[in-house]
Amino acid sequence: MAYTSFSWNGWIKPTTLHNNSTTGFDSALFGQFDQSTTDYSFYITIRKQKPYFGFYFDDIQGTTVLSSGKWYHVCLFKFHFKLKSFLLLGCICL
């Protein structure tokens, strides 16, 4: 996945959200870990009430502040062009 493009999307309805910068609690949505290969592990979580995507050194945080009890459609696109990656993370609240 290090040199490919991919997308991930899903509907989420958070029941509990953390906004504590000192403890750093995250609410995990999805993750994949491969310790044998560099740049192949990633995770999607909610950090400080916002969607967060971690992929080696290409991390990005969404701008939408999520609320408990509401449905959100979370989308992530990673486009790879030569040696550069572009990430976009978006949310729609229903």
Quick rundown:
Helix content is 0%, strand content 51%. By secondary structure, it is an all-beta fold.
Specify the structural class.
mainly beta
Largest sheet: 4 strands, antiparallel
- Tally of contiguous helical segments: 0
Written as H for each helix and E for each strand, in order along the chain, the element string is: EEEEEEE
Oligomer: single chain
Structurally, the number of domains stands at 1
C-alpha termini separation = 31 Å
Question: Overall mean pLDDT score?
Answer: 75
Which value, in Å, is the CA radius of gyration?
14 Å
Shape: globular
Strand proportion: over 45%
- What is the count of β-strands? 7
Order the strands across the largest sheet as they lie in space: 2-3-4-5
Helix share bin: under 10%
Uncertain segments: none
Topology:
Layout: E1 6-12, E2 26-32, E3 42-47, E4 50-55, E5 60-61, E6 72-81, E7 84-93
Antiparallel strand pairs: 1-6, 2-3, 3-4, 4-5, 6-7
Task: Please explain how this structure is put together.
It is a single chain. The chain is 0% helix and 51% strand. The chain is mainly β and 94 residues long. It has one domain. The protein has a 4-stranded antiparallel sheet, with no helix packed on it. It has a 3-stranded antiparallel sheet with strand order 1-6-7, with no helix packed on it. A hairpin with a 4-residue loop joins strand 4 (50-55) and strand 5. It is globular. The mean pLDDT is 75.
Features:
mainly beta, 7 strands, 4-stranded antiparallel β-sheet, 0% helix, 3-stranded antiparallel β-sheet, 94 residues
